[in-house]
Amino acid sequence: MTDDAPLLGGRYRLGARLGGGGMADVHRAMDTRLQRLVAAKVFRSATDELGRKRFAEEARILAGLSHPGLVTVHDFSADEDELFLIMELVEGGTLADVAETGPMQPEDVADIGGKLADVLAYVHGNDVVHRDVKPTNVLLSNDGRAFLADFGVSRLADAAGRLTDSGMVVGTTTYMAPEQVSGGAVGFPADVYALGLVLLECVTGRVEYPGGPDAAVARLVRSPQVPHGIPARLRRGLLAMLISDPTRRITAEQAGDLLSGRTTEVITPIPAPVVAPPPRVPQQRVQRPPTQSMPTQQPSQQRPVASIAAGVVVIAVVTVLAVVLWPDSSGTPELPAVSGPPGPERLPADLEDLERLVRG
């Protein structure tokens, strides 16, 4: 970085190239106003006024994001001859550098995966899709922190390349989700799938779907091979993140919960089918006959019948008691002669005979 190097945007002095791709180059740069090191991502593609407006809108959205695992956007330019982003400079390497040395420890992969999934969940909550999650976009700082870089840059590149790169497929084929390969809608689930492939590569030490047209189609006919014998939280997370159907794939938030061990199971809710109630059949009213009242007897008519019945019962009970409980010592007692025809008029005489019989 020399003092006579041209200033980007009249403020940023470009230094060594750190990396780049088909759409932009990333340089180490010095912010001459704040005297701090930054990363400058300079886009190559020219664009028209509408494209520059779209680029500026996307850049403002990215600049408004703030997360410990997200590379912060400090500044941007959408001028006609300068299209760039100024971002936080992370000193260190990338996850690709570590993965190239061989399989990583599964516990370390689960820890890094949980943190990256949490970053995805935060940015998805702000309605931003990455669309290019890959090992080179995961930065590992010298103090051990992990950052997910280039969030939303694919959308910026889409805006910047409207004239020259229209119709291009944004993303790296190796880590594309099935819906991206088949030309379907690209949303939050595609980022979750790509992160799953990145973590699977880290734990196995090999790329699941190497680049090329054949490999791109392979994920449509073969599911990723998640190994056994790895920690349960990592295996559960990978299996749920790498489901081919995006509607059944877990969210970034759920992936973070699984990989970090905050939960042991995530079940995607399935709405219960709505069962329509059976049609209501009107019930016919049952015609009941009118209640008929029984004719009541006059007290003068009821009294003689009740008196006769009571008299007969009393006589029968007393007679049995007299015979059983107080037998005559001389043998079977002689009953008095009938005092007359049955009826209420005979009751006094019968009672007198009974008393006389009991007393002996």
Which features does this protein show?
360 residues; alpha+beta; Transferase(Phosphotransferase), domain 1; 9 strands
Concise summary:
The protein is of the alpha+beta class and 360 residues long. It contains eleven helices and nine strands.
Description:
By secondary structure, the protein is α+β, with helices and mostly antiparallel strands. The chain has one domain: Transferase(Phosphotransferase), domain 1 (Orthogonal Bundle), CATH 1.10.510.10. 38% of the residues lie in helices and 14% in strands. The protein is built from eleven helices and nine strands. It has helices at residues 49-63, 95-99, 106-125, 153-160, 178-181, 188-204, 213-221, 232-241, 252-260, 299-325, 347-359; strands at 7-8, 12-20, 24-31, 36-43, 73-78, 83-88, 92-94, 138-141, 146-148. The strands form two sheets. Strands 1-2-3-4-6-5 form a six-stranded antiparallel β-sheet, with helices on one face. A three-stranded antiparallel β-sheet has the order 7-8-9. Strand 5 (73-78) and strand 6 (83-88) form a beta hairpin. Helix 3 runs antiparallel to helix 9 (252-260), helix 6 (188-204) crosses helix 8 (232-241) and helix 8 packs antiparallel against helix 9 (252-260). It is elongated and about 155 Å long. The chain starts with 6 loop residues before the first strand and ends with a helix.
- Overall tally of structural domains: 1
Output mean pLDDT. 79
CATH superfamily: Transferase(Phosphotransferase) domain 1
Overall form? elongated
Layout of helices and strands:
Elements: E1 7-8, E2 12-20, E3 24-31, E4 36-43, H1 49-63, E5 73-78, E6 83-88, E7 92-94, H2 95-99, H3 106-125, E8 138-141, E9 146-148, H4 153-160, H5 178-181, H6 188-204, H7 213-221, H8 232-241, H9 252-260, H10 299-325, H11 347-359
Antiparallel strand pairs: 1-2, 2-3, 3-4, 4-6, 5-6, 7-8, 8-9
Helix pairs in contact: 1-4, 3-6, 3-9, 6-8, 8-9, 10-11
